[in-house]
Amino acid sequence: MNQNEFTRRLFLQSAASVAAATGLGGFSGLASAQANELKIWANPGVHKVGAKDWSAMESQGGLSIAATAKSARADESIQKMVVGDGNRLFDAVTDNGGGMEDALASQKAIVPLDTSKIPNWKNILPIYNEGGVGANTIRHKGKVYATPMISNADSMAYDYKELGFHPDSWGVLFDSQFKGRVALQNDFGPTLTNMAIYLQQSGKIEIENPSDMKPNEVKAVCQFLIDYKKKGQFRTFWDGFQNGVGLLASGEVLMSSCWEPIQIVANKKVGDKADIRYGTMKEGHQTWNNMIMFTRGGRERGKDDLYYKLANVYLSTWFGARTLAGLGFGPQMTGVDAYIKANPKDFPASVQARVLDILKRKNERYAVKGNSWQNVFPKHLRAYQDWWSRLQAA
């Protein structure tokens, strides 16, 4: 099932309910946006820095932000923006992973951008220039539809103090000596992509594209994991940020495929009891980014300038340095290392060393040949869903 078919089905499934809501006056109570207020749909724990609320972001951009917490599921987000009330409610929206810009742009739920109105665009990472490995993640049919905010290459966290070595291969997850001390993320997107990368690069399974597998390839990867699950290799498949942190911090598992912020928070919790690190796998990693997009409704309400102000903040070294220091996410602009060194008040020597080390290791992960970009809408989505259900039931 391709993206157009996916969004078409969402439309057919929910058009009736939307029409009913409209008929009942479900939108009549919506207040008109204030002139200097940008209404955004975003993940507050990930997409803001500098303060507990949005005040620091507002100060940097010179605008007011009215934020609503984002749905965690890409299909729910697309449904709300394409056939729901998303364009009535929000001037800008963040994504849930690779492919949403195509799905939303193809349905005219978001609009093209004039990057000349974003001064910091000149500092955007070269990967986003035309022909770069990340160029298509912010474009649809050649036009720019999104501003990148954060990125990463998802890898494995591990307790170096207990292991005594630094794993450099996903293969260590399947070593029998660690039976029952391994966790995987309970999400078929990153888990199947990373496992497909490992199986492809190690020559165990022939896979054409780990980010967009064919049904027989999905089956082969899941059968590989099912075999190890039945042997008791995996302690659990973790769900949610706190669950991921708890497994590592408690020592319940020695290794876990996870987001980098989970490793950072878990390591803060363990003190001297453990040493939770984040590795670079020689086979490769799922790379991804998050972006912010300008809605059709936002343009109709004349919020272009406000969107560009916020986009400029996301491409500032001010934001890049803080998202890197706080949660370990990759900055989307050049010059963040120089900014950190030039601002010792905000980044004292001990913090500089830690943050620049994160950036160095992150760049090493980005450079691994086997990396594959995140794709939340593989062509054969049903095969992913069906085989993931079988894996969970095994």
What does it look like?
This protein is α/β, with parallel strands linked by helices. It folds into two domains: 3-144 and 290-315, D-Maltodextrin-Binding Protein, domain 2; 152-285 and 370-393, Periplasmic binding protein-like II (D-Maltodextrin-Binding Protein, domain 2), CATH 3.40.190. It contains 17 helices and twelve strands. Strands 1, 2, 3, 6, 7, 8, 9, 10, 11 and 12 form a ten-stranded mixed sheet that branches. Strands 4-5 form a two-stranded antiparallel sheet. Strand 4 (139-140) and strand 5 form a beta hairpin. Helix 3 packs across helix 13, helix 9 runs parallel beside helix 17 and helix 10 packs across helix 11. The two termini are 26 Å apart. Mean pLDDT is 91; it is low at 1-33.
The CATH superfamily of the largest domain turns out to be Periplasmic binding protein-like II
Q: Helical stretch count?
A: 17
End-to-end C-alpha gap: 26 Å
Q: What is the CATH topology assignment of the largest domain?
A: D-Maltodextrin-Binding Protein, domain 2
The average pLDDT score comes to: 91
Instruction: Report the structural category.
Output: alpha/beta
Our Rg estimate from Cα atoms comes to: 21 Å
* DSSP helix fraction: 40-55%
- The poorly predicted ranges are 1-33
